[in-house]
Amino acid sequence: MKQEKLAWLSNNPFYTKRFAFFVGRRCRTSTIQDVARELHLDWSTVKELDKQYMQEQLRRAGTPAPRAIGIDEVSIRKGHTYRIVVSDLERHRPIWFGGQDRSEASMALFYQWLRAANNNRIRLAVMDMWKPFRNSTRSYAPQASVLFDKFHVMRHLGEALDQVRKSEYARLRGKDRSVIKGQKYTLLSHRENLTLDGRRSLHKLLQANQRLNVAYLLKESFGQLWDYRREVWARRFFENWKAALRWQRLKPYQKFAKMIDRHWDGIAAYCRPDNKVSLGFVEGLNNKIRVLQRRAYGLRDPKSFHTMSRRPKNLSAPCDKTGFLPLVLPLWGGDYREGKQAAEGFFLQPAKSIIVQYQPRDLEAQAPAQSRTARWLSKTAKH
């Protein structure tokens, strides 16, 4: 007995690849339960078809060979359970999601997956100041420049400012203390992002407390460090910024300045023209992954979550080589016209079905080059 494989059939023989990718596109904007109810399918069937859609997207994207990568961790549940996310900063897409934690061994899994030939192509690695990430990168890609993300550096400075606010709140009493109360996010936000009431509150707060005024101005001015194109001028700016801390009694800021001194090479690397990459993409990607978690109210299948986090931008669902859309039409009950209407509505029966070639109105395709089995099935359908 000879068996012929039909290229347009999905892994589930009851459905075509075109239909599987249609289901996958619907799952981008709807829950699996809603899609299953709309198409009259079982939940697990929709889940499997969505997996096929995501796997096809990854296959089309091909094996990555990035030159600039972004590394960060994302929490997947309570209890300090992390996974590592690696993205391509030039193509702006995620390329790896995995590991068991944020250790050096988990980071090494990425470089082993990427292989030595592609590791040697990496020229820039953007990350936070987490030491295991840095050690693993230097072991597998020693030629790559390590660049510390501006977002994480400024977050440490924001925490230092908040510590100054807390110390001032504990030191003062009465009316001066009430001015500081509830103004945490007013101090931490950029002035451009504040509302009119927020700017008034900030102005009142800075006038009432001299130490908070100095701390706020130092925090706002530190962002200029990433505007310099030469490391010499960036270093001179930082030395002047440290000199402004003298006699200010801002211990959290002095601690922050020592941390910058220890990690200066990774911060000053941004001054080089070749390293001017978008530093906000990594955090933006983490936010999208958190949105996926919130929309799903938790994910049962970790493998599916890994695939979902890595998939690139939406790709059009492929037809077969002829451009036709293969669909499944029922054999029992009604004539061909009724089966055609069912196919147009993507309502597919799960058993006792035959495969025919049907061309939708919105596709411009030439006649298909059918195999012997497909021609026989098509003739049977007409009778």
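Above is the first protein from milestone M3; the second protein from the same milestone is given next.
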Amino acid sequence: MRCAACPFLGCCIARCLARKGRAAYIRVMTEPANPAFHSFHPDLTEANIARLVATFYGRAREDSLIGPVFNAQVKDWDHHIAQISDFWSSMVLRTGRYNGRPMRPHLMLPLKGEHFDRWLALFETTAREIFENDLAEAFIIRARRIADSFEMGIAATRGEIANPRHSV
């Protein structure tokens, strides 16, 4: 069984309880997985999701910290942007178009806390520019959970322990 805070790690309830404590686990499990994600929201469209992803990656590619990491790994940017657009579409519109394993490509990258911090800063700025406050915040909450999940997963493969820093 997976908890809402660890969608990519597939942690069991016991590990989640041990890592976060009972109160945090109950809060995470009882809050809506996608607050403010409603398919009838007029701004929540495939076009706006694609715009968010393309704008974000345009900025990320030029960033002095995370740009070199992305540019060294991504060979076909059009394919990557389409794939990540499918990922977000699946997350927020429940389209089911993305069926990959998002953690896997990140495990071998030389990522540290500052990379996740910068990724989130750029993503949050972009989300707030494209979407109204409630919808932007819903994307940001999900992005923070993803960042924590990736950061903890990467740490685990390195034999390290990492706590969530962004979604708590």
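Note on the second protein: Residues 6 and 149 are 6 Å apart (CA to CA).
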